[in-house]
Design brief:
Rossmann fold, 18 helices, 402 residues, seven-stranded parallel beta sheet
């Protein structure tokens, strides 16, 4: 029978939802893979686990063997219809005299079959059929794509996005009419103008250094003690891109790259030098607007922004690194002026089309971005499961490429 039918049968017989049965199956796969496990292991995961494993065994998707003891001697057998090695009695007829334990194990073939079923199930859940051509094109070009990471990637670590960061500094303004104008700027996506207003009107921050101190304090509070399934950094690393570009101030990506590939130092725009320098030092993340370990590099005001992009050759350097590559924007929205301005600067040096991951995009948004030569990788999210949606996309890419 199909896995879908099997799961439905287990759901009916156990009075558990099909969703809970599937969650149980995935937990068993995640926990044991193709390693052996027993009934006690399953019961720790879910009460429906034993019934599920019985159905998987009946359908040939799970191998079952047995271990038993006789007079303190242990042995394994493929079937309880066999005789005990020590006393000679048929095992299923002498259960009371033998301590029998069932041992389950997925073969590599059945394990891969269940994984494939999960992949397709998730793709059907999150992918938008009208955009399948964009997904396929992204896969075909992935070796020539550079991920461009925005604040949305860091939010699972209890960090704010740009808007959240600015909202958190609102109380630095004492006058209500200043707060009102400040919030209008934030809502309009005019983030640098909002920072400038803080510097001009706040009693708490009177210069750029103080403002950067406040931002560093917020960013330093990143919660790194979260499970891998609660963020997408490890998923993004699977793309194995030569470089990752970020406008984030945090160093979360470097933290995970260090665990994967050895030491990775963050790189700012003025430290790029040339492609050879980066490729030989193992650095992979280019912080377009600086990072918290080098406060002077942080771009937080219009003055900083203008200074960075008015420097002779800065965009030429970036172009030399990226060549004719396409960008894959993740954790961004094209609704803010700040990002649109970044894109306009980059697109002038990168004469290629690009991609952006968006949740629940509407037709007008897709068409407007297409005019900018940006292909929308739309993901349909109903329950706020953004992380699973992105993970499904990355798994899709990795599977197709490999």
């Amino acid at each position: 029978m199909s896995l879908e039918t099997l799961i439905n049968i287990v759901s009916t017989e156990s009075d558990e939802s099909t969703k809970d049965v599937l969650i149980c199956l995935n937990k068993i796969l995640d926990e044991f893979g193709t390693n052996p496990f027993i009934d006690d292991d399953i019961n720790e995961i879910s009460t429906v686990g034993v019934l599920l494993c019985e159905k998987l065994y009946s359908d040939g998707l799970l191998q079952v063997s047995f271990s038993y003891s006789c007079n303190d001697l242990d042995e394994e057998t493929e079937s309880l219809s066999h005789n005990c090695k020590y006393c000679g009695e048929v095992l299923h007829e002498s259960i009371d005299y033998h301590d029998v334990t069932r041992i389950y194990k997925f073969s590599r073939t059945s394990y891969d079959e269940i994984l494939e079923y999960n992949y397709i199930l998730n793709e059907n859940k999150y992918f938008i059929p009208e955009l399948y051509r964009n997904y396929d094109n992204l896969v075909n070009e992935i070796d020539n794509v550079v991920p461009f990471l925005g604040s949305g990637v860091s939010m699972p670590f209890n960090l704010p996005n740009w808007e959240g960061l600015l909202r958190g500094l609102e109380d630095f303004l004492s006058e209500e009419f200043h707060k009102k104008y400040y919030n209008e700027l934030v809502s309009d996506g005019s983030y640098f103008e909002a920072f400038d207003l803080l510097l001009e009107k706040s009693m708490n921050v009177s210069n750029e250094d103080q403002l950067k101190d406040e931002i560093v304090q917020v960013i330093s509070q990143a919660n790194m003690d979260i499970a891998d399934d609660e963020h997408n950094i490890s998923d993004l690393i699977k793309l194995n891109s030569h470089y990752y570009i970020s406008t984030n101030y945090d160093l979360i990506f470097e933290h995970f790259l260090t665990n994967e590939d050895g030491y990775n130092t963050p790189v700012c725009m003025d430290e790029i030098g040339n492609l050879r320098n980066i490729s030989t030092t193992g650095n992979k993340v280019i912080h377009l607007h600086g990072h918290i370990n080098r406060k002077s590099s942080m771009v937080v005001t219009k003055k900083d922004y203008s200074k960075l992009y008015s420097r002779k050759g800065i965009l030429v350097q970036l172009a030399a690194i990226l060549g004719n590559k396409s960008l894959l924007f993740i954790g961004f929205s094209f609704k803010d002026k700040f990002f649109n301005d970044i894109y306009d600067k980059l697109v002038n040096i990168l004469k290629t089309h690009h991609y952006i991951v968006l949740f629940n995009p509407d037709l007008q948004e897709i068409r407007e971005l297409n005019k900018k030569n940006i292909k929308v990788i739309g993901l349909r999210v109903n329950d706020g499961d953004y992380i699973d949606a992105i993970r499904t996309l990355i798994n899709f890419i990795v599977r197709k490429v490999n």
